[in-house]
Design a protein that fits this description.
Organism: Streptomyces formicae
Number of strands: 12
Order of helices and strands: HHHHHHHEEEEHHEEEEEEEHHHE
Shape: elongated
Keywords: Hydrolase, Membrane, Transmembrane, Transmembrane helix
CATH superfamily of the largest domain: PPM-type phosphatase domain
Number of domains: 2
InterPro entries: Bact_Sigma-Reg (IPR052016), PPM-type-like_dom_sf (IPR036457), PPM-type_phosphatase-like_dom (IPR001932)
Oligomer: single chain
Protein name: PPM-type phosphatase domain-containing protein
Number of helices: 12
GO molecular function: phosphatase activity
Structural class: alpha+beta
CATH topology of the largest domain: Phosphatase 2c, domain 1
Distance between the termini: 11 Å
Largest sheet: 6 strands, antiparallel
């Protein structure tokens, strides 16, 4: 399952005040607790102690997390305490009840505006998430005989979709997958991503080979950029096919980083013939050359975008994925049984290595079952 949405929700809980998102539950406690503490302190201390300056903070604090009605109740309680004869909260000349009453009214207005804004924001976010998930739906745990796990991190702040794209679909003769990267990143690339994924989902059903699928994606970009001579619309992609009748994977690369074969703690970068990127009009005329790789029981395939391989440390050195991944698997062989944990471990290592990653990042792990093996028998899924 792709974890970007969960990570974004965690960030919203941490930075709710700056993001304008609904506050976390703990923010509701300070206003009533502050009022209670003031009352208790006033009851047990001499009458000469004046805490009325603190009660003025209660209504604004309430407006941060409560609605207008609750804020009005707390504000009214503050004004009532100031007015109680003999209680001693406020003395003539040391407090201004009219000022605090005015602050309470402003707090009620602020709470009303904030509540309406939060409601509108929730609606907009819900629609935006639905639209983005329609473009890149959550990765299923299994498609046909292939177990799937993945991680997607969009470079655009708070976005669920960027310039990377992926999909896994069941075709007439097996399972086909694509992972790619369009020109640019962020929200500006979402339209191109949607067009490519639509073309891929159609081609999976009616193209006999993955070379034909690549040609369909290439034609889609050529057609989309035909009306603009300066469009320069292109994308890189790698396509994989897991046939039902053989324990192999067929791979085609269109200018994209090759997948990695994980066999035990051994990590091998597949030597896939480099084809031209999509959108140049070449894939249909000179199809990219296909690589067929035999698979053994327990083999995993890791496909990724260049957001991982091109991450750099402080000295400008690229992230050495094969070497560091092999070291991870030697240190913790159980990662091979939990592909989702494997993607999370690699992502944590990339962030620790580079400090921050400013490009879209996608990683997908495929765990194919042996030919003829039941779809529900693969480990970890």
């Amino acid at each position: 399952m792709i974890r970007a949405a969960a990570r974004r929700r965690d960030a919203e809980q941490r930075d709710w005040l700056l993001r304008g998102t609904p506050p976390p539950p703990w923010v509701r406690w300070p206003p009533p607790l502050l009022l209670l503490v003031i009352v208790l302190v006033q009851l047990v201390t001499p009458k000469t102690v004046d805490l009325s300056f603190l009660v003025a903070a209660v209504p604004p604090l309430a407006a941060l997390s409560y609605g207008p009605a609750a804020t009005a109740v707390l504000g009214g309680g503050v004004v009532m305490l100031l007015s109680l004869p003999g209680f001693g909260l406020g003395h003539p000349g040391s407090s201004d009840e009219l000022t605090i009453s005015f602050i309470a009214l402003l707090s009620v207005l602020f709470a009303w505006v904030r509540s309406r804004r939060e409601a509108q924001l929730v609606t907009v976010r819900t629609v935006a998430e639905a639209a983005q998930f329609a473009v890149l739906p959550p990765l299923p745990e299994r498609v046909g005989s292939v177990g799937c796990a993945g991680l997607y991190e969009a470079a655009q702040h708070e976005s669920l979709v960027g310039g990377d794209f992926f999909d896994v679909r069941r075709g007439p003769t097996g399972v086909r997958a694509v992972i790619g990267d369009v020109q640019g990143h962020g929200l500006a690339a979402v339209g191109t991503v949607a067009a490519l994924l639509g073309a891929f989902r159609e081609a999976v059903l009616d193209k006999p080979g993955i070379e034909g699928v690549a040609a369909r994606l290439d034609r889609r970009l050529v057609v989309d950029s035909a009306g603009d001579e300066h469009a320069e619309l292109f994308a890189t992609a790698v396509l994989l096919e897991f046939p039902d009748d053989a324990s192999v994977v067929r791979v085609v690369s269109c200018g994209h980083p090759p997948p990695l074969l994980l066999r035990g703690s051994e990590v091998t970068e597949l030597v896939v013939p480099a084809g031209a990127p999509l959108g140049l009009g070449i894939a249909g005329l000179a199809p990219p050359e296909q690589l067929t790789v035999p698979l053994l029981a327990g083999d995993l395939l890791l496909a990724l975008t260049d957001g991982v391989s091109e991450a750099r440390d402080a000295t400008g050195t690229f992230y050495p994925l094969p070497d560091r991944l092999a070291a991870m698997l030697k240190a913790d062989p159980s990662l091979l049984d939990t592909p989702q944990a494997l993607t999370e471990r690699v992502w944590s290592d990339v962030v620790g290595y580079a400090g921050s990653v400013r490009d879209d990042v996608t990683m997908m792990v495929f765990a194919p079952s042996a030919a003829g093996e039941g779809e529900g028998e693969s480990r970890g899924f």
